[in-house]
Amino acid sequence: MADETNRTAFLEIQARMIEIAGKLKQVQNQMRNKEGEKKRAFLTLEELRQLSDDTNTYKSIVLDFGWFVKCVNSLGTSLGEREFQINQSSQHEIMQISQLFLVIHIKAAAACRFVLEPKSVLTNEQEQKFKDSETAISSLQSSKEYLEKQRAEVENNLRELLSQDPGLARQIMSMTVM
Questions:
Q1: CATH code: domain of residue 17
Q2: How far apart are the first and last CA of the chain?
Q3: What are phi and psi of 84, to 5 degrees?
Q4: Which of 16, 40, 69, 86 could cross-link to 90 by cystine, CB 3.0-4.6 Å?
Q5: Same domain (yes/no): 51, 6
Q6: Of 149, 151, 143, whose CA–CA distance to 26 is shortest?
Q7: What is the 8-class DSSP label of residue 177?
Q8: Are residues 91 and 125 in the same domain?
Q9: What is the extent of the structural domain holding 96?
Q10: How confident is the model at residue 96, as a pLDDT?
């Protein structure tokens, strides 16, 4: 009975280790992304600070292509709601319309969009991005430390379990990874 209890405890500890490792990896990736955002904001600020206040500055804008998805979805929905038989020519027309939407989407995505903004606006935005990144990194660092403590606890629980049941330890060590 104790043997089965120890096996169950081992499986629970193993699941917890996997869960914590996944969360830790996710937090580390988020930290890496935020560090990159922070660095980009810092470098952009450095460049902006070198410019005179009356310099024309341009902000790149990201276009929302939600309209494209809505058009394609509504096209599919309206075609699906109609009760008619689609013949070969109708299928061909539908394919042409879909391809046209795709071409429009690709061409729009390839086009660069910029907006004239005062230097002060861009500087303020970059300073805010920098501050937001620092705040997020600080929060993520706290999460990382918490997860590392949890991982250490689980590792100690595993060591304790294996020291209590040497048979379980031998059994685990004899397993092969496939």
A1: 1.10.287
A2: 29
A3: -150, 160
A4: 86
A5: yes
A6: 143
A7: -
A8: no
A9: 63-112
A10: 64
| Same domain flag for 33 and 68 | no
Do 135 and 154 sit in the same domain of this protein?
A: yes
Q: Is 48 in the same domain as 75? A: no
C-alpha dihedral over 145, 146, 150, 155, to 10 degrees? 10
Whether residue 169 is predicted with pLDDT greater than 90 in this model: the reply is no
What pLDDT is stored for residue 118 in this prediction? Answer: 93
170 token code pair: 């031998």
d(CA 153, CA 38): 33
Maximum distance among all Cα pairs of the chain, rounded to whole angstroms? 80
pTM of the entire predicted model: 0.66
Q: What is the DSSP string of 2-48?
A: HHHHHHHHHHHHHHHHHHHHHHHHHHHHHHHHHHHHHHHHHHHHHHH
List, as one string, the DSSP characters of 91-136.
HHHHHHHHHHHHHHHHHHHHS--EEEE-HHHHHHHHHHHHHHHHHH
